[in-house]
Amino acid sequence: MEPVDVYLMYCALKAHFGKGQYDYHKYHGKTKITRASFYKRKDRYFFTKIAKKFKTHKEAEGYLVSNFIKDRRGYIVNFNDENYDTWKLRRQGFFEMFPVEMYPFVENFEPIFKVTDMQHPTLMKEYLGGRVSLESLIILDVLVEYSLEWDKKLHGDIVWESLRKLMKDYKGFLTIDPKRYRMKLLNLIEESN
């Protein structure tokens, strides 16, 4: 992979995870950024380093995505291997991790989604506290569509709007089999009763 290609991918992902409406998947990673603009940058070294380290498009994309999730501003100098390694491990074993994250809530499942008096729901607090992963939030939204209610009840809430955008942006990079996760969750709830 060439450094300029990593740069173009970075620009597309930065637009995708940024404040605008650009959709990386819809436009297949294409932007108006020119290849020539790469040679005007002073930080070309970082893109060269990534291009040498990751031979495939998918690996480089994973590296960039994992770092954009951690740093939404997307400063390339802040990107690091630790974010990528943690993300990769979480993705590889997530089907087994999902029930572990959900176990504390199965006995009283519905209240974790409840919004009362514009207060953040339990599920959001658990995510913000680092006890529930972004992947779990997305999977639960696919299964029970709680975000529709949160959109209504938390309208104008800065934390929710930022989290909602992150969930929407990241969802396209996940491969989710709703049936498998639904069965896993139902089995977990059944076992707890």
From TrEMBL:
Residues 5-87 form the Bacteriophage T4 Gp59 helicase assembly protein N-terminal domain. SUPFAM superfamilies: gene 59 helicase assembly protein. Transmembrane segments: none annotated. This is Bacteriophage T4 Gp59 helicase assembly protein N-terminal domain-containing protein. It comes from marine metagenome. The lineage of its organism: unclassified sequences, metagenomes, ecological metagenomes.
